[in-house]
Structures are given as C-alpha cells and as structure tokens.
Amino acid sequence: MAVVDVEEHELVWIVSWQSEDFVRTRNSKYMLVGNGSYLVDRVDGGLHQIGVVSAVTGEWEADYRARIRGLPVRTAVDDLHDALRGVAATRGRMHAVRTLRQRLPMLSPAEAIEYVSALLDGDVPARLVAVATKELVEPLNPVLAVKTILSGAEIRAGQRPDG
C-alpha cells in the first residue's frame, strides 16, 4: 500500500492510497479498485476509514461531524422547526399546529399543540422530538458510515484497539 494523495479538509486529512505496484508501474492490472480513503483527524490524530461511495459522494462528513466529533448537524427536524416558527410568526400558532399535523399526522391534536407551544416557548419535549426524528430523519446507511480504526483517545493513551 502506498499513499498517493493527501487532501486537507476542515475536519481531517483525507489520505488516498493505492497498491505499490500500480504507483510504480501505472499498469492497471495492479490497480486496486473499490477502496475508500483513510481520514486522519486534524484535532486528535484519530484514524478512520470510509468506503469509496462515501468518499465520492461526501456523505461521510455528516456522520463524522455528528458521531465522531459530536458536532451538531442540521436535520429535517431542524428544517421543520424553522418552518413552524415561520408559520407561527406570520399566520399564528394554530396554523403552525396544522402545518405540524400535516407533516407528522401520527401526532394527536393535543401533542401537536404541545409540540408547537413548547417550540415557541423554548424546547420541545424529547419524546415528541423522537417522534419527529423517527419520521423525518433517514437512518444512516452503514455503507456511508465512518469506521474508526484507532481513536484519538487510544492514541493519547498509547493503546492499540482490541481485535
């Protein structure tokens, strides 16, 4: 294996690799295909791997931000909240409740009123956000997920991962 490219990204260094024989000869019979990139965290030095589909589409980034770094990532629930606030500001609270019931018909009228009222007054109860998340946010396709090879914490502790 040989490193053929390193690209700087705001979160990581993206390391592309190929077989040594291909790098040396450029003969396509030695080319490895279907391999993704390695990611080296710019903060803690953690080593992660992504598949080729995730590397090409960039889908790895949201997973990395949320799961590896613990950073907030906008979801369809955030968009719903923005829309509900906008409707409430222009047309009133009850129009926002109707909008919510159109998007999440499984909520009872009382739950929709509770949801919108809590959203406009502060925070929506976690049980109602969980319903919205289940209905509006697609779960991550495991093919697009980031796989941790060696976490930054393990590097700092000088340990190798089990397995």
How many β-strands, per DSSP?
A: 5
Number of helices: 8
The percent of residues in helical segments reads 40-55%
N- to C-terminal distance = 21 Å
Tell me the number of structural domains: 2
Structure characterization notes:
The chain is an alpha+beta fold and 163 residues long. It has two domains: 2-72 and 141-157, no CATH class; 76-136, no CATH class. 48% of the residues lie in helices and 15% in strands. The protein contains eight helices and five strands. The chain has helices at 20-25, 52-57, 60-68, 76-91, 93-103, 109-121, 126-136, 152-157; strands spanning 2-8, 12-18, 38-41, 47-49, 147-150. A five-stranded antiparallel sheet has the order 1-2-3-4-5. Strand 1 and strand 2 form a beta hairpin. The chain is elongated, with a radius of gyration of 22 Å. The mean pLDDT is 92.
At a glance:
The protein has 163 residues and is an alpha+beta fold. 48% of the residues lie in helices and 15% in strands.
Essential attributes:
163 residues; alpha+beta; 2 domains; 5-stranded antiparallel β-sheet; elongated
Secondary structure blueprint with pairings:
Layout: E1 2-8, E2 12-18, H1 20-25, E3 38-41, E4 47-49, H2 52-57, H3 60-68, H4 76-91, H5 93-103, H6 109-121, H7 126-136, E5 147-150, H8 152-157
Helix pairs in contact: 4-5, 5-6
